[in-house]
Amino acid sequence: MNKKLQIVLLAGVLLIVAYGAYLVFINLNQIPPQTSSLVITNFEECVANGNPVMESYPRQCRYEDQIFVESVGNELEKTDLIRLDTPLPNQTISSPLVIKGQARGFWFFEASFPVILVDWDGKIIAQGLAQAKGDWMTTEFVPFEADLVFTVDKNVYSNKGSLILRKDNPSGLPQNDDVLEIPIVFAGITGIVKPAPLLSEAEARVIAEKSCIKGGGALGVGIYNENSKTWWYDANLNFTKPGCNPACVVSEETKTAEINWRCTGAIPPETKPVVIKCLPEQRNADVCNEIYQPVCAKVNIQCFTTPCNPIKQTFSNACHACQNSLVELYTTGDCQVE
Fold first, then answer.
1. Over pLDDT 90: what percentage of the chain?
2. pLDDT at residue number 267
3. Which residue has the higher pLDDT, 245 or 7?
4. Other CB atoms within 10 Å distance of the CB of residue 189
5. Domain final position from 193, 224, 252
6. Is 229's pLDDT higher than 50?
7. Mean pLDDT over all residues of the chain?
8. Domain for residue 80, yes or no?
9. Integer Cα distance of 13 and 197 in angstroms
10. What's the domain count of the chain?
11. What is the rounded CA–CA span in Å between residue 336 and residue 315?
12. What are the φ/ψ torsions at residue 93 (nearest 5 degrees)?
């Protein structure tokens, strides 16, 4: 009986081994599934590949299990402060460019605010002032218009750029800075055809989030720069520098990331303050608005024995300063300690 049992057990083991060998043979000779070599990294590439587009706002394109959202800048975040009628995000533009929209009265100073046009590399190719088309001394929306004349380098890396509408901030205080920035497309510019990156957008994003995002920041859509072999992510940080538009840049070669503040050209050059004389209508104003646009005024001190030098005093706006009979001149912004 023992010998028969041993034979049965041996036969069972041999059957199991044979079946296992058969499964291994089938697996080794199986034709591997076909995988797509196509690399999609952004909304534009997704659309160009013929994938379905969802007509939401912003639009969304689906490729396999990924969804790419069309960038509209920070338009949606600023809609209660400033709105553009033309151009709209991702609109194709040419020179001369007519800009129209509406902004809250406090976006202006002296009925205007700066407008800047930059190319793909952040180089300023045009700048000017948007002018209010109504009474800007209000907190309501005021129509504005601006015209920009520009020339784009035909050999530029990309046909994309940005239109920047900056809140006028005579105080110079960082907490009073604000900006609307939307992507645009330059007409007649094809840009350079770029090969697929070695580092995927998903891999680069992981590196960017670990290195650049601390304390509640967020990253925008990744854009690959073939020239520098880097991935660029607009970085919405919980801290910033005046006149800067930070990006988290991931190197394909070193697989490391750093913040590029992109401040070049965006900060207006330092100029001496313009001295403004109080006008009769400012002195005779019955009521001043309460919009905080500080000015530094020279207050003439009345002395009874010897002549006195005027002292500097910050007023909430020019109207309040000129209502003071001892004020004749003022400059925009807070008084600086000398």
1. 31
2. 47
3. 245
4. 20
5. 193
6. yes
7. 82
8. yes
9. 52
10. 4
11. 13
12. -120, 160
